[in-house]
Amino acid sequence: MWAGLCLLTLSAGCAKKEVVSQEPQLPPSPPVAFEAPERFVQYLFPVNQELTSWKEMGPTLRKSLGYVNSKPAGAVAVKRPGLTITWGRMARTLRTLQSLLPELDAHPELFLRHFEWVEVNGGINYSGYYEPVIRASRTPKPGYPQPLYARPPELTSYLARHGRYHDRKAIDIKGVLKGRGLELAWAADPVDVFFLQIQGSGRLQFDDGTQAYVNYNGQNRHKYKSSGRIMREKGLLREGHIFEQRRWFKEHPERMWEILTENPSYVFFKFGHRGPTGAMGHVVDGWMSLATDRNFLPLGAVVAYGVNIPDPVRGVVPLRGIGFAQDVGGAIKKNRIDIFCGGDERAEYVASHLDARGPAWVLVAK
């Protein structure tokens, strides 16, 4: 998770030392391009992912290794044009990377020496996700109008019979679940709940000062339609990123439900004991955990990824990193990767604005 790295400079030779806060100073790095792995590694630094050393990647790597080791070594994890790999080969890749972590700070060229770089043809469409924090109440009261619903007990059987459950309009406008005791909490802003459903998990900040995690617990199987796309199609927005959408919703509250209900997809939640949890069953880690299409980039894969990301202070900055496919998502298909950005303000900003193309390689042990 991004913690706002800060460099402290003390003025020498003075009786009173002045502390000057500066923005993070990354090593000079040109914008990410579709480039050769040798050039990519030349500008690959742990600080890009807010690490002080590659060794700090160890706990995230072990999550992937535990998952991959649970699969039959000889079975094929993915087979498609350009990439065929077994679970055993992925496990060997992770073990090789694990053994190299102590040496990589001094010898980044080991990334090239010990791994084949299997390029993703056509590159990747990158987006981001984060852990939102939602203002909420444990009981219904003025100022907290929007229920956050638990999974209805009939959801599985209903889906088996009908294929889809009630859509957003039926749930939020017609109130088909109202009064059934399925409300986990009541949120201050329906737009916050809408974006929480897109992220899949988050934290509730209750009005009594307490907090609680909420995690994904089922979906109604209606096709997801991006609110940004809806608003661009209506000529309401130019770019459609989340920050622009939020500003528009604040300025046009009377049209909020018109837009929100055009996305019929609906997500249900449960209380949890930890932060955002990926498809492997582990908490995802900022700038290292990636959501991928498991039929295109399988869970457990080691991915070298590169994209120019929006930054609230520096505009656009290059991000070259080593990531782990540890999550999936309904909107993540084929050449798309969703980078988990963390849970602070910068994470929200980057995830809300990121929509860019860049290169990617699957690393495979030689």
Helical content stands at 25-40%
Number of domains: 2
Total beta strands: 18
Straight-line N-to-C gap = 31 Å
Main beta sheet, described? 8 strands, mixed
Low-confidence stretches are 1-24
CATH architecture of the largest domain, please? Beta Barrel
Averaged pLDDT, please?
90
Radius of gyration (CA) equals 22 Å
Q: What's the CATH H-level superfamily name of the largest domain?
A: RlpA-like domain
Strand order across the biggest sheet? 5-18-14-15-13-16-6-17
Short summary of the structure?
The chain is of the alpha+beta class and 366 residues long. The protein is built from 11 helices and 18 strands. The two termini are 31 Å apart.
3D architecture notes:
With 366 residues, the chain is α+β, with helices and mostly antiparallel strands. Helices cover 26% and strands 28% of the residues. The protein folds into two domains: 31-128 and 278-365, Barwin-like endoglucanases, CATH 2.40.40; 132-272, Barwin-like endoglucanases (Ribosomal Protein L25, Chain P, Beta Barrel), CATH 2.40.240.50. The chain has helices at 37-42, 58-69, 87-104, 110-114, 155-162, 168-173, 190-199, 227-233, 242-251, 256-260, 345-353; strands spanning 7-10, 19-22, 76-80, 83-86, 115-119, 124-129, 133-137, 146-149, 183-187, 201-206, 211-219, 267-272, 289-291, 302-311, 315-327, 336-340, 356-358, 360-365. The strands form four sheets. An eight-stranded mixed beta sheet has the order 5-18-14-15-13-16-6-17. A six-stranded mixed beta sheet has the order 8-9-7-10-11-12, with helices on one face. It has a two-stranded antiparallel sheet with strand order 1-2. A hairpin with a 3-residue loop joins strand 14 and strand 15 (315-327). It is globular. The two termini are 31 Å apart.
